[in-house]
Write a structure and sequence with these properties.
108 residues, 5-stranded mixed sheet, 4-stranded parallel sheet
């Protein structure tokens, strides 16, 4: 199991059982986090993305290749953009409905 804390990890691809925990991601040029985009056609399996703070214009981009994703307890900057392939939204409630993720996360 790989755990990422207090490091710059913005994209997780073709991985299994990676933990992205308790990071602060700010002022990125692209999306703050990109997960499960399926680079090379391979999934990112059993990712755990918990307790992170993302403060940038483009917050999170989720691809379709993310079986077993656990994503919760994160904090996001108000008004930022979420993308769950192919839907983009600034509506956090829609994001949660579309992805099934971030149930206990919040926008601040």
């Amino acid at each position: 199991m790989q755990t990422c804390r207090d490091v710059v990890v913005r994209s997780v691809e073709n991985a299994r059982k990676v933990q992205v925990l308790d990071n602060r991601i700010e002022d990125t040029d692209g999306y703050g986090m990109m997960l499960g985009l399926g680079a090379n056609g391979a999934p990112s399996q059993e990712l755990e993305v918990v307790g992170n703070e993302v403060r940038t214009e483009k917050l999170v981009r989720l691809g379709r290749q993310r079986p077993g994703l656990r994503m919760d307890g994160n904090r996001y900057e108000s008004g930022g953009l979420f993308k769950a392939e192919p839907v983009e939204t600034r509506d956090f409630e829609r994001w949660k409905r579309e992805t099934g993720a971030d149930r206990a996360s919040r926008v601040q």
